[in-house]
Amino acid sequence: SQQGEEDPQALSIQEGENATMNCSYKTSINNLQWYRQNSGRGLVHLILIRSNEREKHSGRLRVTLDTSKKSSSLLITASRAADTASYFCATWWGAQKLVFGQGTRLTINP
Amino acid sequence: KAGVTQTPRYLIKTRGQQVTLSCSPISGHRSVSWYQQTPGQGLQFLFEYFSETQRNKGNFPGRFSGRQFSNSRSEMNVSTLELGDSALYLCASSLELSGANVLTFGAGSRLTVL
To answer: Does residue A1 have a pLDDT over 50?
Structure first.
């Protein structure tokens, strides 16, 4: 498969806790992206990290990238109920298409 | 600016029928990509259009087709519908399709085939 693998497939935490999800991919990349999808809706771009970057922050999001291990992680700090969604990592297959992992389904319990 | 608009949002068809879905990209975006999302297969790339030309195609049967108009609006068509075609169909646009761009997605068209 061209897709990455996300881990865990599902994650349930209490509001205020941190959520960490991981992504592994198979090919060399120029960048890796994370998207969020609320139930049954379109995807929303969250953050892009380039291959020469090791860590990137955006608000409560922190993304790391380890190209030697072909893996990335997304950390959401101080989670909120509104963070309940599915999260996908995505990498470019050449310059032809953006391929997505299977996603992590995150549930934030009040 | 307006986002990516997909119509219709929901539709129900029966096996053997055909369906056409529409996507209006963000103004100025010339690349439109289509994805099929199902619980079992996840997000699968269907095809991508740029300047009215299909540049990339995923691994789907010929029943799935698309086109792009001169104003960058795109349509996809599925003929001879099968139960397995039930899915959320997502359209995404970008200025150009390159290894550095991000995609802006529409809300999707939910197709149910009975």
So the answer is: no
